[in-house]
Each structure stands twice: as C-alpha cells, then as structure tokens.
Amino acid sequence: MKNFDVIVIGAGAAGLLAAGRAAECGGKVLVLEKMRRAGRKLLITGKGRCNITNNAPVSEFIKHIQPNGKFLRNAFSQFFSKDIIALLQKHGTEVTLERGGRYFPTSNKSTDVLNALLKWVSDLNVEIHGGEKVEKIAVEDNQVRGVISNGKFIQADRVILATGGKSYPATGSTGDGYELAKQVGHSLVPDRPALVPIETEGDVAQKLQGLNLKNAKAVVWVNGKKAGEDFGEMVFTHFGLSGPVILTLSRIVVDELQKKNKVEITIDLKPALDEQKLDNRLIRDLNEHGKKKLGNIIRHWLPSSMIPVFIELLEIDPEKECHQVTAAERKKIRYLLKNLRFEITGHRSYKEAIITAGGIPTKEIYPKSLESKFIKGLYFAGEIIDLDAKTGGYNLQIAWSTGWVAGNACMNAD
C-alpha cells in the first residue's frame, strides 16, 4: 500500500470537507469509509433535501450549540456558512434561502450536494476507498503512524477521525470512532440520541396522529418546573410527538429521563394570545353563539381533527348551549387551550435520531486546529465531537467547519 500524508476515517460531510481541504493544501489524501458508498447520511438529511446551513450570524449559531458552542468560535472564523455555499456553487450546486434562514440546494436534491463534494475531492485526486473498516489507529510515542484497516497497515502521520456518531446506524454511523479514540487514550462523554422524537403516555397523541401544528409553543417541565420551551412546527404521531419544536426540546427530555426525573410537555395551542386576551375571545364567541351547542363552536378555536379529542379531554357536555357555559367551564377550556399536557415515557432510538449528543470532550481537543491534545497528528471533525445543535442547518455547518479546519490544520501544522 502506498503512503499517504493524511488518512480521513469516514466519508460523510465532515470527512469530505477534511479530505478536500487537506488535498487543496498539497496533501496526498486517502479516505477510508466502511460503507460501500460515500455520504450515505448526507443523502437523507433535511428529508432528502439537505439543509446545508443557516444564515444566522456566528453569535446566534453558538447559542444553538450544546454543550459548549464557544469552542467553535475559532473554527467558524476560518470556515463558515458563506464558505460552504461558495464551495458548492463553484462545483455546480446552486442554493436557495428558505424560511428560518435555512439554505437548501435549489434542486431540493441532497444528491446534488454530495455530487458537488465528490467532484471537488476527485478533482484534487483524493482517493476514497469504500468497504474499509478501520480497526485501530497506530500510535507510537504519542504520534500517529497510520491505521490498521481490514487487517492491513496503512502508513500516514496524520489521521482525521470523522466517523460520525450513532444516529441513523443504517448509514454507517454506529459509534466506531468512539472506540478508536478510546483506544488511544481519549475519554468519552456518554452518547445519547439528540433531535429525536418523543414517546408519550396514553392515547391522545395517537388519536391526533398526522396532525401538524404550524405555530405551537411547547414547554418542557421537569418535576413540575419549567426546563425549556420552543415555538414553531410540531406533529402528533402514533407513539407521541415529533417535528422541529419537539426535536429541539428532546435534548432536555432525553437527559432528564436518564436521570429518572418526571418529564412532561405542554402544548400551547394559542401562543399568540395571553390568558386575558384568550378569555376575552372565549367570552365573545360564547356570547355571539349563545344558542349554539358548545361542540359546534370549538371549530372556531381548533383544527377539525382535534375537536373530538379536545371535547373528550374537556369533560364538558358538547351538547350544552354556549350561553349555559359557566365561568369555571370557560376557565377549563382556556386552560386546555394553553396547556395540552403530555407525560413523557421515553424517546425513539438512534434509528430515528437526527444527531448524537456526547462524544469526544472538547476539553481534549485544541479549538484552533481540532488536533488531539494527547496524540500528535490525530484530528477530530464532525459529529464525533461532543457538540450538537438544534435543527435548521446548524449541525451540518458544524461538520463543514470542523472538517475544513481539521484538513487545513493537519497540512499546516508547525
């Protein structure tokens, strides 16, 4: 086997950026990918459309990244959203800005993003070998010497570990990189699913299955105390709750469930109205439709598919005429509109998690170069690092930025 300057382990978003940048800097680069094809996970991001990045400024990005977004300040200063957009456009993929500051390929096809990256690295003579499972990083005197893959030794004094986490394991993300890092002395922040749908007690969510709320406010309660909230889109499923708002809050939910705490989520169905304004609206509607049955005017407040479930939870006779609704009953209606409550029993598995929380602690990595503080010539990029963010293109930007920085630094090290 011929020698290489750099070996990148993993041909996902971070790995391809690392490989391309290292090659741009003059490196002879080999990418080892255990799956037969590169970029399997990239193809399913954004529901197959690939949410490339977000137009938020660096300060906003950092706020949305856990547990230590400031670690990425240096990486973002070297390579950020405008840079990945320019790279993709240069290789034939136009992008479009959508609501929420999210960038997608104009074609709405993630394959175009992957093909642009593969063209880039191919033009730079990067070699990508599929079906290569790396068993060990060879280290001597705390310096990388190469890797052992499929039983054979491949020499290189720089290795970039970009194997991803454990989410969507069918794409090849099965936590292999964690073991490789532990073998050479790194510790691991326990991994767990993040941006993952939530399972709920009872059958209310199941009865509302398929209903999508565009403007809902969700609040997480831990042992009765408010622990987080978000506003936006959510969906009810046969097992519980999903959609962008729920996925964002799931990081809190997963962590608190692991601590055996009682976790609940309330949904505010009328977030634009405070308690007083909502009460005034209810009084007006009940007075205007005094002779009508309560069950008939609930349609003014809720989507039609939600009405039977709402009436069931309300425990007020839907045949009751509106003018007969008491102040106590009106209060009950108001409360339910603002606090549709779900007890959380669990979360879905890595098969449905968009991203993995946990991984290599940032305290063990130099932020400027993403090189290991323990092993010279070992670099980290992407989801394997203990950094994760909300939906909206933030996680892919972490991959792009860390990949580029690791690729750049490994060829420009002192």
UniProtKB/TrEMBL annotation:
- Keywords from the named record: FAD, Flavoprotein
Any one Pfam family here would be: HI0933_like
- Domain RsdA/BaiN/AoA(So)-like Rossmann fold-like span(s) in chain numbering: 5-408
Name-wise, this protein is Aminoacetone oxidase family FAD-binding enzyme
Flavoprotein among keywords? yes
Q: Which organism is it from?
A: Tangfeifania diversioriginum
Superkingdom, natural source: Bacteria
Cofactor dependence is on: FAD
Domain (RsdA/BaiN/AoA(So)-like insert): residue spans on this chain: 192-355
The UniProt entry, under InterPro entries, shows: BaiN-like (IPR004792), BaiN-like_dom_sf (IPR023166), FAD/NAD-bd_sf (IPR036188), RsdA/BaiN/AoA(So)-like_dom (IPR055178), RsdA/BaiN/AoA(So)_Rossmann (IPR057661)
